[in-house]
Amino acid sequence: MTMRVTQGMLTNNMLRNLTNSNDKMGNYMEQLSTGKKINRPSDDPVVAMKGMGYRTELVKVEQYQRNTNEVHNWMDNSDAALDKATSAMQRIRELAVQASNGTYSDEERVNISEEVEQLKEHLVDIANTNVNDKYIFNGTNTDTPPISVQADGEIFSSFNGEDVNIEVSNGTKLKANVSGEDVFEGTPAIFSTIDGFIDKLNGESNENIDSSIEELDSGINNIINARADLGARMNRLELIENRLSEQEVIATKTMSNNEDIDYAKAIMELITQESLHRAALSAGSKVIQPSLVDFLR
Prior knowledge:
By secondary structure, this protein is mainly α. It folds into two domains: 53-254, CATH 1.20.1330.10; 262-297. Helix content is 68%, strand content 6%. It has eight helices and six strands, in the order αααββββββααααα. The protein has a two-stranded antiparallel ribbon with strand order 1-2. A two-stranded antiparallel ribbon has the order 3-4. Strands 5-6 form a two-stranded antiparallel ribbon. The chain starts with 6 loop residues before the first helix and ends with a helix.
């Protein structure tokens, strides 16, 4: 049995094919204008799902990079503060060596004590270093200064010894802070040592000034050890940053390969589709039989 092909069937097929051809040209033009293979999930669900995964990974990497910047902020400011603290302590030690000279008079020692008092206040300011409204030497208690000075000049300290840990990569947290408790309240405690030295300079203590030199040396070593530990963590942070940069490049490239079009290929496909569309229009015009209206023109 032979199926009869009618004029209506030819016309409907032609119109359907022209519509499909037109849709293809529209897709190619949309790809060229956006630079993306798909512009909605329905265009290609597999590409869309992969793209969501790649984009999520890239967002994580970018967040970790922001976290490393925060760690840098903590570490750089801590290192700068410890550098100033080292200089102040070394100056106090120089004054202690001078004051231990038996030829110095009581008045000269009192003058030295005045400079030591100023250096002590400077060290208090360093211990209370505030960066972006955070007291960086007070552990996780960042909204409170670790040291307060009473009206009579007595120092009251309340250092928080908890570590500030910031996640810098998947499952890896890095200690961002330096423990003020270890630096300023170690053995011996810096401010107690300085107060004892001042008492000796003012004749309020019978102890030998040489003992203060040994204690000051221990205090300086505590600061140096803290800076060495900080330096090791800064080196590790640099390695993590390098790895994150590599992960960002890989994630961006993978996402681009998944979603971005090949412009040269897309242009060739559009040109080819335009030629096919013109040929279909030309063939279709011959398929459609002339009507009575055409002969009445």
